[in-house]
Amino acid sequence: MTSESIGWWGVVLGILAGAVRGGTPFLLVSLGECLTEKSGKINLGLEGTLLMGAMSAYAVSYKTGSPWAGVAAAGATGALMGALHALLVSRPKVNDIAAGIAMLIFGTGCAFFLSKPYIQPSAPQLPAVALGGWSQVAQVQAALRISPLFFLGVAVAFALQWFFRATRWGMHVRAVGDSPAAARAMGISVGRTRFLAIMAGSALGGIGGAHLTLFYPGAWTEAISSGQGLMAVALVIFARWNPVQCLWASLLFGGAQAVGPSLQAVGISTGYYLWNASPYILTLLVMVLTCSRKRTLVGAPGALGSPS
Amino acid sequence: MKSLILSLLTATLATSALAADKVGVGFIYVGPKDDYGYNQAHAEGCAGVQQLSWVKGVEEASVPETTAVQETMRNMINLDGALIVFPTSFGYFDPHILKVAKQYPKVQFLHCGGMYTEGKHPANVGSYFGYIDEAVYISGIVAGHATKSSKLGFIAAKPIPQVLRNINAFALGARSVNPKATVQVIFTGEWSMPVKEAEAATSLINQGVDVLTCHVDSPKVILETAERRGIYVTGYHANGIKLAPKGYLTGAEWNWSKVYTDYAEAVKAGKSLAAGTIPHLVRGGLKEGFVKVSAYGPAASEAAKKDADAAKAKFMDGSMVIFKGPLKDNTGKEILPAGKELKQQALELEAMGWLVEGVVGSTKN
Question: Which end of chain B is flanked by fewer CB atoms within 10 Å, N or C?
């Protein structure tokens, strides 16, 4: 069954493994939001998208028996939610933030409504990528069973970085986000670029949901997201709109999330509310330490949130 | 005019309910009614009471602890002719139940918990609760037998008396058969936080814990995580064997059908809270049928079943006392001297603020 206790190593292992398994939804959602915001639009509805993705992934995996079909469904649902948001915010006089909050409530409500038949059944889970074969320690082996969606997230983070820096389409997205007027003068369709960016970003958010229900914790419950989608949106600001920094920020958050439980497991039981708040304290600290005196929000797309 | 029509309509509906000689019973849950947890336990109670041909049950799930629940209660009374309502979540009581109860003095409002105070609250309000720590104690016995590392894990939401009582009962049950056993506690701080619960389960398993149990709203994620890591679990609220077919040892379950049936029969017989013919505070354990123990899973050993059945028999004849001296807390302070005991009804137990010896954890935040 289980092997020996690993004591304090358990805390280290818990935080590192927690960073990977708990950080994956943060990573996918924040990359989605990063892409969206680079095009100059904000999508606060990703919390709702995350739940819709989580729900549809679980439902489709259960119905078809294939978790990968679930992931595809989550991406498609996300893209659909994104298309709806994009359609809303492309209208004149529609504010992104207000539309985003509406989408958040809409997505959450829809997910809860549609998920009723899937609370009880257990859906087939995504196969883990086992990297712990070299170790004899059961805990290390368990910690190194990594979600395939984590690798997808890492790949997307580096790909997005390259996309923004070195590709024509990436530059179009940035141009649209920084100065829609200049982009228009160049002959780029602002509306279409934003539509596609929001849709692709939202699809990533949906896939983040698939990780929650098909890998870790691996079940559908209405509290499955508990605000992770909103946190991920905030992470983008924290990561200064840089995809690779989104990766580090998500790992940090995932790891910090595991601090409280792993400390209590070795008997450090006082102050767990404080430990549970550590991700937020950490964010504040990093924000204070990295702030600039010259400019607020370094790296923010110039036209972020302004009407197109 | 509109209100006249509405009240006429309501009266007609209410009479039609009466004409059929049915007792309307309303159930309100805070979450989905098939969550393998608290709400499912109540929904099973609702299904149980509906077995009676003269009961007309109405249910509403996922009702938040806001004025929304007042609206639901009014609808159940006005439109469905409910004579009894069971708003089951803790937070429904104050102010929602208290407010609506004053408006409908003929309806019985029954709340799960122990919040009713005589003189302070409307006379048509009552509280009921079960001594589920008795079933948790039995789970502890089976867990104490099953563990090889003598390390048990308990994932709990908040350090409030009802939760601490279950943790202590689990530890005392386990240590009654395995004095070396310790119970490592993790408080998640929330009633429903699946990611944190999975994280807590993983951390405990990494520390060598080989039997897990919990007190959160829905044990689903914890049961599934334990099963995936190949360790044992004991359940809480409802039977979870489907979630952990290999590792499920047994579990503590509510048996609300019995409680709800009793209330419905009392109301049919013309009894009421206000007249004092239905008691305002109703409590019971295994003996009274308020709680039950899940059927043993395949991993429960014969020796464990024997000890657990013996304890169950003592609960049934009333001779079992969980909290008896000599009893120390986990900081070494004496709770009860030798020879003294606290029976289930003791009020001290409902204000519990300590963890017994053998529990690793602290009640401080």
Answer: N
Ordered DSSP codes for A107-162: HHHHHHHHTGGGSSSPPPPPPPEE--TT---HHHHHHTEE-HHHHHHHHHHHHHHH
The strand pair at B291-293 and B248-254 is best described as antiparallel
Peptide bond into A279 cis (omega under 30): no
pLDDT (tens, 9 = 90+) of chain B, 365 residues, equals: 455 555 555 555 554 444 457 899 999 999 888 889 999 999 999 999 999 999 999 999 999 999 999 999 999 999 999 999 999 998 899 899 999 999 999 999 999 987 888 889 999 999 999 999 999 999 999 999 999 999 999 999 989 899 999 999 999 999 999 999 999 999 998 888 899 999 999 999 999 999 999 999 999 999 999 999 999 999 999 999 999 999 999 999 999 999 999 999 999 999 999 998 999 999 999 999 999 999 999 999 999 999 999 999 999 999 999 999 899 999 999 999 999 999 998 888 988 999 999 999 888 76
Query: Concatenated DSSP letters for B8-63?
Result: HHHHHHHHHHHHTT-EEEEEE-SS-TTSSSHHHHHHHHHHHHTTSTTEEEEEE-S-
* Geometric angle at alpha carbon B343, from B320 and B321, rounded to 5°: 20
pTM of the predicted model as reported, rounded to 2 decimal places? 0.87
- The CATH architecture annotation of domain A4-290 reads Orthogonal Bundle (1.10)
| Shortest Cα–Cα distance, B78 to chain A (Å) | 26
DSSP at B243: T
Residue boundaries of the structural domains of chain A? 4-290
To the nearest whole Å, the CA of A127 is away from the closest chain B CA by: 12
Mutation to test the A interface, candidates B59, B199, B210, most A Cβ within 10 Å: B199
**CB-based contacts of A242: which residues, under 8 Å, 6+ apart?**
A34, A161, A299
Q: How many angstroms separate the CA atoms of A30 and A285, rounded? A: 20
Q: How many helices (H) and strands (E) does chain A have?
A: 13, 2
Please check whether residue B256 touches A, CB under 8 A.
no
How far CA B167 is from CA of A226, A265, B170, B186, B207, in Å, comes to 26, 15, 5, 11, 19
**Interface predicted TM-score (ipTM) of this complex, two decimals:** 0.86
